[in-house]
Write a structure and sequence with these properties.
The protein has about 160 residues and is mainly alpha-helical. It is about 75% helix and about 0% strand. Helix 2 runs parallel beside helix 6 (about 95-110). The longest helix is centred in the middle third of the chain and has 19 residues, at about 60-80.
């Protein structure tokens, strides 16, 4: 299977999963952002800690630890937020943060993969288009996710017939 096809599947499958499970993809996008922060700021210390407790060298590789730090918040959010989007309009609008979350996850995951696989994927036309759009994906994804979350705010007006 072509590496370009793998990238296209990696971009499409999460969107379909989020839509099918009616997962609030805005929270998944923000969880992917959290995972990126964890990889950046907690990753080096986690690698050191796991390395010091391990009796075998390289029992848990740095790549594995980084992938776990990135994916665990996203996976947990996906499971917890399943069936959280209600209404046809919201399900339809959820496609935007779902696409942004999917693109962000691919942008964050590919550089963390083993060098050979990452190299192959990074030389595909789909990757070049996606990586050239990284700032756009991040910016629009954040804006769309926040707007989607804000739109779900509950209406706190009381419908009490008595006036106070």
């Amino acid at each position: 299977m072509s590496h370009n096809v793998i990238l296209i599947i990696a971009l499409s499958l999460p969107v379909l999963l989020f839509l099918f499970l009616r997962v609030n993809a805005a929270l998944v996008f923000l969880s992917a952002c959290l995972g990126s922060v964890l990889v950046e700021h907690v990753g080096p210390d986690a690698i050191t800690v796991f390395g010091s407790f391990s009796s075998k060298p390289n029992s848990l590789s740095a790549t594995t630890i980084q992938l776990l730090l990135l994916l665990v918040p996203t996976v947990v959010t996906t499971v917890v937020m399943a069936l959280s989007v209600h209404g046809k309009l919201r399900v339809f609008l959820n496609m935007l943060p779902a696409a942004a979350a999917s693109m962000l996850l691919v942008l964050l995951l590919v550089p963390l993969l083993p060098r050979g696989l990452a190299f192959e994927l990074m030389h595909q036309p789909t990757w070049r288009i996606l990586s050239n759009s990284e700032a756009l994906v991040m910016t629009l994804g954040a804006i769309v996710s926040l707007l989607f979350l804000w739109s779900q705010r509950r209406n706190f007006r009381h419908h009490d017939k008595r006036k106070h």
